[in-house]
UniProtKB/TrEMBL annotation:
InterPro entries for the chain: Amidase, Amidase_dom, AS_sf
Protein name: Amidase signature enzyme
GO molecular function, one term: catalytic activity
Domain Amidase: 98-512
Coiled coil regions, renumbered to chain: none
PANTHER family: AMIDASE, TRANSAMIDASE
Amino acid sequence: MSVLFTSISPDNPVKKEDANALLGHLGLSVEQEDEEDYHTLLAAVHDCAETVASLPDYQPVPDLDRYPRQDVRRPSPEEQLFGQAWAHKFLIKGNPGGGLLAGKTISVKDCIAVAGVPQLLGSDIIPSWTPVTDATVVTRVLDAGADIHGTSTCENYCHSTASFTSAQGTIENPFAAGYSAGGSTSGGAALVTAGVVDITLGGDQGGSIRVPSALCGCVGLKPTYGLVPFSGIASGDAIDDHTGPLAQNVLDVALCLDAITGYDGIDDRCLCSPKHGSTSFANSLRIEPQARLDGFKVGVLKEGFDHAAVDPAVKYTVMAAVEKFTDLGATIEEISLPDHYHGPAIWTIQQRISGSMTLLGQAHGRRGLNMTEMERERLPWTKEGFQRAFPSTKNVIINGLYLSSCFPDLYGKTVNIGRKLRDQYEEIFQKYDVVVMPTTPVVAPRHGARGLPVESLKPSMGLTINTAIFNVTGHPAISIPVGFAPAKDDAKVKLPVGMQIVGGLWQESKVLRAGYAWEANCDWKEGVEH
């Protein structure tokens, strides 16, 4: 269907030379005899754009009468915890009639829209912007009776698994100041671990729920891709985007998951998800007799343990935790999937190309909730804004532009190979209920420093060798704390170790059951000097 151009507006700003000016960036041009026609067509599409721009936007309208936002503010120094764990403090009281999450307190990662609350995104590239809608997960936890107490700090544009990159400040590990809380759901992990809130709603594009959970010593779940709507959450790469809960225990994670799952009529990632309100993950855990795993088969992934980056103390701690599954009635067997080693490279190429397009305002091809006010604020990029960006964000843009230019088929190939990895894991899950491995290869490292790009990025390097692959494949993965290991630079400092439990697609019930049984029968802090 062609654009109508019979009545180009007289004040249309498009010039005859504009078509060639646009094509010149690609080394292309139109023939001279065609230039007038392309000018007409370009002017027509400009008028079409002006018409659409003048239409009112269509975003879900939050129920501010039922859920008023009280006392929205940047926290004072006295209110701050663990450095800069809070982005904004406020109170939204949940459904007074109660629900699954009645009595629970929640923080929301500062990339998840809360209407009327300025969003910082861990950055100062642009001033904070204020959403006009609530993310679906925000509405759902309020409907389930939870109270939201604020937004928690995330890393700069969610582009780091360290916790010193936020423009608002560093987040300290709850077990040892000076060490990373992980990222990018850094502030929320610290608040949950310390019991300041019961649950944090986080985002995970490569490990951003599971890495901080592992480093801080709490439980964090990345659900199956599409189980939980991503509507109203800042996207990285649309096929890697996941959102889910962090909590002190598996049962609270399961309760929150029950509250937030299911298609919301907006996010096409969720078209295959169960109907909202139909899951019973938490109840299934409660009725398990003595939290046993009789008949369960646990695969111990060789490549997840034997990677050169895995610290021996972390490997030992997780292996000792795995052995405890046998006491619960499960059988454990070592398994091997050599292509697991390719996961980080596949994820890197995929995320750099798609992530750069998102940052440059060129993401497309999905039906979902588009936060147009955020795009208006952050685009187009300015030289000053780019210079303020953390090196990880600059790196995504530079890498993505390079890869798109020099390897034009590579994004599609990563999607194909990602499907192969998914299918290989699905074959494993035909035989094994869950697969286990260390969540991160090391315990929390020392904070890095803002300096030259490599120096700034070094504290995050290698932390996602076992997590990012499951953003590519979409499998559900939970991190639970299973013990302590010494800090790399100081053996007297003991820091949490996380075990990652992965299940088949849509098999959250098995992942949660394995984590719940381990947690119910083992004390992860037992015998450790603090």
